[in-house]
Design a protein that fits this description.
It is an enzyme of class 1 (oxidoreductase). This protein has 11 helices and 12 strands. The protein is α/β, with parallel strands linked by helices. It is globular, with a radius of gyration of 21 Å. The protein binds 1,4-dihydronicotinamide adenine dinucleotide.
Length: 332
């Protein structure tokens, strides 16, 4: 099949070409999918998208009119796709449900440890021959209560690592796992009991701004909050206010609500216009990475393989059900 690959970076090209083995005709496009770029999919049967491509209803309409039949996502998350429109225009949407949950889980814990032991500050100090320990005091992870919101594959991989540290794990998920070796609690209990809260649920209308002024008010003063899931789970101004008051003691983000205009690009010579993002970067107790939690060799290789298998399976038969995204995905 002819596949237009949007938002291509050098590493996408490398891993997709290697996994393709000549099966499909891949057109690599550096641009994101937007209303202005959708026409580049002309002459292709499928488009391959990443997390900041705009698969809005309008853009899907353009793609369908151009003859595109398959949207294959190089991601697990699919909140950027208008599934109702895809259904209406008979576009199949496929994703990579689990490529390396360990990549994201390990990055999540890396953020926790960095914030706790202040590695980011220590690194800078040592480079300037400042070996003072003032202000670098951390805490033992052992015995701390960690609240995990969303116990899918990434949430559970994170829990396993935290259990290895001797943390007490509590979790919330509207669809609890049957064989959990951790305790499920309701969301208010999770908010009020946790030293560290980490988000691993998808972005849906129900989880939009899950972390806002009201939920922050229920948390312990000085809580550590980690989001490696999707930016819009967190209301940015509410966490800035929480950080200024000291209610939030540590913030680790790999995702940001307005990341589409920032992440994955080198903007080091530009004047960043997003004042909320820039305010976040001024706090000593905030660590932000630019949506890199997935970025391991194992994950990129698995993403490329599943993405192209989805294309082959679409062409020759049926895509495995677990890889299909339907309008009813989280309405089980
Ligand atoms: P998954 O589908 O295996 O698990 C999601 C879990 O969240 C499910 O158990 C589901 O029941 C639960 N859930 C649904 N609604 C909920 C709610 N209202 N409150 C709490 N839990 C809820 O997904 P997986 O693979 O674990 O991924 C989780 C999220 O991580 C993805 O949706 C994606 O947004 C994000 N992600 C981020 C990456 C990164 O590089 N930063 C890479 C991959 C995924």
């Amino acid at each position: 099949m002819r596949v237009a690959v949007f938002s291509t970076k050098s590493y996408d090209k490398e891993f997709l070409e290697s996994a393709n083995e000549g099966r499909h005709e891949l057109t690599f496009l550096e641009t994101r999918l937007t209303g202005g770029t959708a026409a580049l999919a002309s002459g292709h049967d499928a488009v391959c998208l990443f997390v900041n491509d705009e698969a809005s209803g309008e853009n899907l309409q353009i793609l369908a009119d151009l003859g595109v039949r398959l949207i294959t996502l190089r991601s697990a998350g699919f909140n950027h796709v208008d599934l109702e429109k895809a259904d209406e225009r008979n576009l199949t949407v496929a994703r990579v449900p689990a490529y390396s949950p360990h990549a994201v889980a390990e990055h999540t814990v890396a953020l926790m440890l960095t914030l706790n032991r202040k590695i980011h500050r220590a690194h800078n100090r040592v480079r300037e021959a400042n070996f003072s320990l003032e202000g670098l005091l951390g805490f033992d992870m052992r015995g701390r209560t960690v609240g995990v919101v969303g116990t899918g594959v990434i949430g559970q991989a994170t829990i396993k690592i935290l259990q290895g540290f001797g943390c007490h794990v509590i979790a919330y998920d509207p669809f609890p796992s049957d064989d959990a070796d951790f305790q499920y609690v309701d969301l208010p209990t999770l908010f009020s009991s946790s030293d560290i809260i980490t988000l691993h649920c998808p972005l849906t209308p129900e989880t939009f701004h899950l972390i806002d002024a009201e939920s922050i008010a229920q948390m312990q003063r000085g809580v550590m909050l980690i989001n490696t899931s999707r930016g819009a789970l967190v209301e940015t101004q509410a966490v800035i206010d929480g950080l200024k008051r000291g209610d939030i003691g540590y913030l680790g983000l790999d995702v940001y609500e307005e990341e589409a205009d920032l992440f994955f690009e080198n903007l080091s010579g530009d004047i960043i216009q997003d004042d909320q993002f820039m305010r976040l970067t001024t706090f000593p107790n905030v660590v932000i990475t630019g949506h890199q939690a997935f970025f391991t060799e194992e994950a990129l290789s698995a993403i490329a393989k599943t993405t192209l298998n989805n294309v082959s399976d679409f062409e020759t038969g049926e895509i495995p059900e677990k890889n299909i995204v339907s309008v009813n995905q989280y309405r089980r």
